[in-house]
TrEMBL record:
Name assigned to this protein: SRPBCC family protein
Lineage: Bacteria, Pseudomonadati, Bacteroidota, Flavobacteriia, Flavobacteriales
SUPFAM superfamilies hit by this protein: Bet v1-like
Domain of life of the native organism: Bacteria
Organism (species): Flavobacterium cellulosilyticum
Length: 130
């Protein structure tokens, strides 16, 4: 299952946005209003929970400065990645698009497609708050 957020323009350089997203603590600022839990579990991982959804543990998997950050599920039960693609527009601005890729059975994919789509869209839109 592949989902994409819309491209969101950010008034920060690609490197500045990359640096902000490289620090997993900043993901708390990106979470939607209905967040039930956010807990750091190291320098490169966190657990978050949304109301009505199971808690998810995300871990920093790969960083390619200043264009790409890959977060992945720390559990094999829900195998997925969340990729932040950062594109420089000028020295002071960039845009970002989030790509979600998961390997789920058709029933699970049908159940989570709507909530996950809304979630990644909210994360992308909230990047203007960083």
């Amino acid at each position: 299952m592949n989902l994409e957020s819309p491209k969101v323009p950010i008034e920060k350089s690609a490197q500045e946005l990359f640096d902000l997203l490289s620090d997993v603590r900043n993901f708390e600022k990106l979470m939607p209003d209905n967040i039930a839990k956010f807990e750091l579990i190291g320098d490169d991982a966190f657990i978050f929970g949304l109301k009505g959804m199971p808690e998810i543990k995300l871990k920093m998997k790969e960083k390619t400065a200043p264009n790409k950050i890959i977060l992945g599920a720390a559990s094999d039960k829900l195998p997925f990645t969340l990729v932040a693609n950062i594109n420089a527009i000028s020295e002071q601005s960039s845009d970002v698009k989030l790509d979600f890729e998961g390997d789920f059975n058709p029933m699970m994919a049908m159940m989570i497609k709507g909530p996950i789509g809304k979630f990644i869209e909210t994360l992308a839109v909230n990047m203007t708050k960083l």
